[in-house]
Amino acid sequence: MQTSEIKYTVPKSIKKDTVFTFCPGCDHGVALRLVAEVLDELNLREKSVAIASSGCSVLLYDFLDVDCIESPHGRACAVATGVKRAHKANGSDKFVFTYQGDGDFASIGLGESLHSALRGENITAICINNTNYGMTGGQMGPTSAMGQITTTSPTGRNKEYHGFPIKTAEHIALCDGVSYSARVALYDIKNIINAKKTIKKAFEYQLEGLGFSFIEILSSCPTNWKLSPSEAHKKIENELTKTYPIKVFKDIKETPNV
Amino acid sequence: MSEKELLKGNIAIARSALAAGCSCYFGYPITPQTEIGEFLSYEMPKRKLAYVCAESEIGAINMALGASATGAKVMVSSSSCAVSLMQEALSYIASDELPVVLVNVMRAGPGQGHIYPSQGDYNQAVIGGGNGDYKTIVLAPSSVQECVDMTFRAFYLSQKYRNPVILLLDGMLGQMAEPAIIKDNPYPETDNSSWVLNGANQRPAREIRSLEPNQNKLIRHIYEMNKKYKALEANETDWEEYQTQDADFILTAFGTMARSAKAVCNYYREKGIKCGLFRPKTLYPFPFERLRELTKTTKKFIDIEMNMGQMLRDVRLSILSNVQISFIGKPVGDWLSESEMIGAIDNIIKDCYANI
Ligand SMILES: Cc1ncc(C[n+]2csc(CCOP(=O)(O)OP(=O)(O)O)c2C)c(N)n1
Ligand code: SF4
Questions:
Q1: Is pTM beyond 0.90 here?
Q2: DSSP letter, residue A46
Q3: Pick from B65, B67, B201: which is nearest to A46 by CB?
Q4: pLDDT digits (tens, 9 = 90+) for A22-35
Q5: What DSSP string describes A60-118?
Q6: From the CA of A27, which ligand is nearest?
Q7: ipTM for the complex?
Q8: Mean pLDDT across chain A, nearest whole number?
Q9: How far does residue A164's CA lie from ligand 2's centre (Å)?
């Protein structure tokens, strides 16, 4: 009888013996692994500086085996701007990317995010959209969907009290400095494969010097949603993709700025 | 270079920064410091250096945080109410032990206040406007020549101690012109190859982080930072004394106020009245020990500031209990004039001198 062999390899860009400390079933772990795989495939580990920001993503530097700096809550794109520009002034080109939550990127840090996009900073921003402030316990964030119950919208998000959620990837796509803006999800294999391709493309666009590239990753937060991991994925597939369609909103190679 | 020129304080700072090797500047407009950013917006792109018109002071100081992590010499400049916006990142920069030079050309506050010069941000700069146990080195020039010298020194100290440095001057000094010389950078370069972020090539990955979930590690980090502050206090405290040796009373003042105070000293000396001046050049570390020594021989001190008494707290902390301390202040102004000072001082000392 033949026994099948399961091969599991850890990407070089993930620290040895790393145990992700995210909650069970959280998509952060999948997203980070995809980032690490793409860093490996593009041989970027040795020339990268990653920016971690406040939120569940902050411990990035415990997981990724690349140079990392932490930014104050929301300011990751400004910090990335400084890192990228300083290296350029020094005559060296480094690969610089941020990994931030949706509250970080699109609420407290919207100014820094949007203006980095408008300036066409040659960096890549990855935004984990889990429709709440995860780390602080699941409060309503800028991306919480209409009707979504959170600890600070106990009867559900409604337009009278809270107004409307932000569609980040769509907004970023409107900026002329942007080379690429897309939303992806991780709720099944097909989407995970697509997410990896998208991350790779965004990274390649930075390597080609095309400007700001952006990926919004629609992710689960089973703990704060009070759902099992698989129920959380169903919620993304059946509900959240209605507000947040999986799509490429800008690709400068296909539709250049006029 | 190296010739005497008529220079405005703000321009002197911008040019000295370039001469010191500053390769990154991030700024947002605010009077009375805007010429620094305007001048550099012209000069830095010519030299292929990093210059960003930031979207806000929050953006600017966070760009500085990122840039300094690469080991670059980085400067941001701003004024008062806008420096308030930078305090969160400044606390991170201190905690991350990153070298950033921040120029605060002070205007009147609180709040928006106005563009009149003021020394109202002594407390914010010296005691700290951000959260947590940290210190910022604070240098206080009182002439355009010192704007030059202290800009060089600010870059040097920030790199040597891996600590933010604030160059603190009032709008008067930023805006006024007087002769000064910009010489070559007198300081050695600091080796930062052991900590900068430039890609984990042939070495383990590095992290620069502020969050520290491990309580013991955080405690150790704060103790380590404190050791650095002790070294700063022992080695970098700087001040100027003028006719303090035999003084019956000593004026204490910093920045532009010390210039008028010096003229006031001369006025009293001509009348045979023994007046001296003590001027801290580093506000942190503050020259506590020297000032305390002076109180053994001089029993009357008059603190003069363009605010309602902020350095006064540090003067009081320096001084032994059997010493009289008076305060002369004006919150904002084109200047606290010599005649205004003399009027107030006459009042304070009139019981001791018959000839006033
Ligand atoms: C200036 C500031 N405000 C608030 C906080 C507290 N805080 C830490 S993480 C966080 C929420 C992060 O949410 P998000 O960016 O959506 O990321 P997630 O945790 O969901 O991945 C908040 C509010 C902080 N650290 N700094
Ligand atoms: S709180 Fe949510 S986003 Fe954060 S680790 Fe847990 S499941 Fe993931």
A1: yes
A2: G
A3: B201
A4: 999 999 999 999 99
A5: HHHHB-SEEEE-STT-HHHHHHHHHHHHHHTT---EEEEEEEHHIIIIITHHHHHHHHH
A6: 2
A7: 0.95
A8: 96
A9: 23
